[in-house]
């Protein structure tokens, strides 16, 4: 490997970009192989093997989180982590391409693109050298609970590998091709799942006065809960209350004793998050009681708010322009990603990469073009270089735990 210290930042950047682009044909082939053989959350072993086989031969994997691994590229010392998600979704593909998946699973969220782009970047850094070591974070279970990212954080693997910053990129069809969002501050919401059970007393549909019908009680709770968004939440803070499933009854002429709904609570504010839970419980219990029923609310806490480090975002945006990409206006959404767990530990950056496709994320027809591999790879390169520049500056995170704590605080300033 070429010595990193012998080259200027601009020389390093140009050599890495050239090496990355040379890797793209093989990366596109890898993307198609990964796409054709998807593995759902918790069963990512075959996908992990394909990715490890494509990484530089000298790179030894460090197993983590069951079906994941961390792979160091570029020597010892403080490093930049680059995340790639291994898992697919339990969706039957409807794209019709020759390399479509046929096993009832599908890379309908672009993880195949992300992994191929990460491999291209890792091979480029291995071939030409980079300003800092790169840790390929091959993460399982991004799409389900328990979170693979949280497991990696709690395992201590990031600290063991001296990861001082984390970066990632995600395809995003709401942006056009050639456009990348590099937004500082909160970009994704925290996401919690709830189960709400309304219990009454069932009976014959012809004698409702002899029952305590949980269905109208639940219907009123659903309506009342929308006021949490319009009247309880600060209008400047994104908040979502969504009911995704409804289950009640087994016969049209019988009133059931129980009605169940499941959904999600999301917000862009960690401080409002706890209050949202409290208000949701109060509304459910109060409305149910008014109907002579009882409500039980169970909330499963998910990802925290995803906060991009402001300095990383600014550095990466400048580099992206030099690579020929258009940096979009700030993009924030109440979508969620467990990359947020990494961002809560070290300065981090999630980029959203535009792709020209008419289908949305998680749709059975979602299929970014091969050009998306290049766009994601170059976006990851910009983020990696931005993080490396911050790491190697005087007072940067390579100086140890104190500077790491200071760096992590950058991501919490919003």
TrEMBL record:
Pfam families: M20_dimer (PF07687), Peptidase_M20 (PF01546). Residues 193-289 form the Peptidase M20 dimerisation domain. PANTHER family: METALLOPEPTIDASE, PUTATIVE (AFU_ORTHOLOGUE AFUA_6G09600)-RELATED, PEPTIDASE M20 FAMILY MEMBER. This is M20 family metallopeptidase.
